[in-house]
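Notes from hallway chat w/ T.B., transcribed later so I don't forget. T.B. wanted the structure written out for a chain they're using in a teaching module, and asked if we could keep both sequence and structure tokens in one place. Agreed to drop them here.
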Amino acid sequence: MSGKERRKSTHKQLEKGSKEGGLRARTCDPLAPKAQVAGSTRAGDRGPRSGAPKATSRGSSKTPAYRARPEYGQAIVTLTDKTSGARRDYWLGEVGSPESRERYYRTLAAWESRGRTLPTFEECGLVPTFHAMKRRRAELNATGGGTRGTIAAALLLHWREVKDTVSSKRANAIKVTLRLLREMDGSTAMKDYGPNRLRLLRERMRSGDADSDPPREPWSRRTTNERVRIVQAFFRWAVAREMVHESVARALEMVDPLKRRRGEADDRKKVLPVTQDLIDATLPHCSRQVRALIELQLLTGARPGELVGLRAIDITTESGHGVEGEVWTYEPDQHKNAHRSQSRTIHFGPKAQGILRPFLASRPLDAPLFSPREAEEERRDAATAARSVPVGYGNGRGTNRSRTPKRPPGDSYDVCSYRRAIWRACDWAFPLPRELRRKKGETAAAWRERVGDEGVAEVERWREIHRWSPNQLRHTAATRIRKEHGLEAAALILGHASAEITDAVYAERDHGKAARVARAYG
């Protein structure tokens, strides 16, 4: 049998199977219940209907799947009551639609918030029939709602207005929070959003999402409270623009923040100084630019975001009389407390000046001093100089390089790229055990399947010990300055308005001094 005949035979078999199952007739039937949204509780211990996978067993930790019912063209999720074992189908709407995905996430959040017992349809934001949903949409359109009155439409306008008015770190927090809100309630009308849905969103923040790519870890209590305030601020913004009545924003303000229970440990890790041993082991694996940033942070106590975009034109090298001063100064335009109208001055002493001078030579005044593009060029030059294959043999320089890379190096670092560069250096300095490393060409999903949950947890513990972040360098500098020059000097160098902040957050106390006092007087 030729290849063409085999393809015709296979096509006929598929067509025959489809007709026998009635799939084509049921799918194309205009009278089929196209958008039944909610469902009904199953009687007895009957298994799932034909064609659907089995529901999650009682006590199982697996997340119920978003499933399709092809005969109805609908999406469905089956939940199991942890206490009674009863199962219920929740119809979510048209398969693959954004609305059905939102209802799926809302239903899971309601189920988790009730301790994995069956929630009501109202708690999930579902209505019993498709006709009830059509009536609700007609009411929204009649009152000026519809698509224009949905949360997703307002989120887009809010993001466009606010993204350039806050720091990059704050903008990222707002973006992640609004994305989660859109995922759960994007098609919901602004006027229908209330405290109960905000609490469901908060439960989703706390539970995390292991199935997302990349997986999102559960947020701490403090982070969750901060992100809830972002949602509340979004609705206050909408009230100011007459997108929703002020009663909606007031109702959301009534949701109390999560509080720390008696005897409960704080789930947010404190940022600690990084030890000099870890820094010394990492520096040889850093580029010249990243190494300079690390050393400048240790000498000045500056935040990462204050140094990554430093330019020659930003540095004041004169003392005020036209001569070079002993201390250079730099006043960043954008910093953490700029929105509070507070000034910030970073001082560069002789050691810091020695680090900066090589980057100031033969460079335009408005060009960033620390460039990832320059770091990549220097890395390639070093690799070319160290190659053992004679010139003219093997690959020529640049012949095996992509001409249009997906992520070309930029002109300057940002906080995230700076942190990733340090983490890569940490991974070179402290490589994982061989059995836990990703093999060449192995995808992240294949690696997770190979090492299992225990292997992933072991890798996380390894990185927690051997990786450090640029924010820790500021804590290290604060602790050193306080130990050598006192608390007030540390507060001045760090730019704090009060030494109480330095004492409470940044500079670790000198426990060695306390031990010496105890030996003398104890």
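Follow-up for T.B.: The mean pLDDT is 78. Might be a good example for the class.
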